[in-house]
Amino acid sequence: MSFRFASAFTAAFLCLIGLVMVFIPATYLDRTGIEVTDVAVFLQQRIGLVCWGWAALMLAFANIEPSPLRLRIALINIIMMTVLAGLAVYEWHQAIVGVNMLRLALGNMVIAGLYLSTLFHKG
C-alpha cells in the first residue's frame, strides 16, 4: 500500500466516521427514545468535527512525501484515539454514544496503524 493511498483512504474513513458522529445523535437517538445526556451528544458531535479536521490533514498529506513530522502526527492520532476509548468506557451508561465512541477509537487506531506502516515501507 502506498503512502498516498493510505493517506487518501484514512481521509475518506475519517470523513465517513465524522459524518456518522455528527448526525447520528440528532436523528437516530431521539427516535429510539434512549435517554442521552446533552453533554454526551455534544461530546460525540465535537469528536465528529475533529475527525473531519484530521481527514483534511490526511488529505493534505496524500500530496507530499513521508516525513518524521507525519510520523509524530500519526502517533498523536493513536494517543488521541486511546483517550477516546477511555471516554467511551466512561460514557458506557450512555449505551449508543459509548459504543459509537469505542468503535471510532478502535477503528481509527487500526487505520492509524496501517498509515504508520506506510511510513516505513520502502518503494
From TrEMBL:
Residue intervals passing through the bilayer: 46-64, 71-90, 102-120
Keywords: Membrane, Transmembrane, Transmembrane helix
Identification of the protein by name: Uncharacterized protein
Organism, as annotated: Donghicola tyrosinivorans
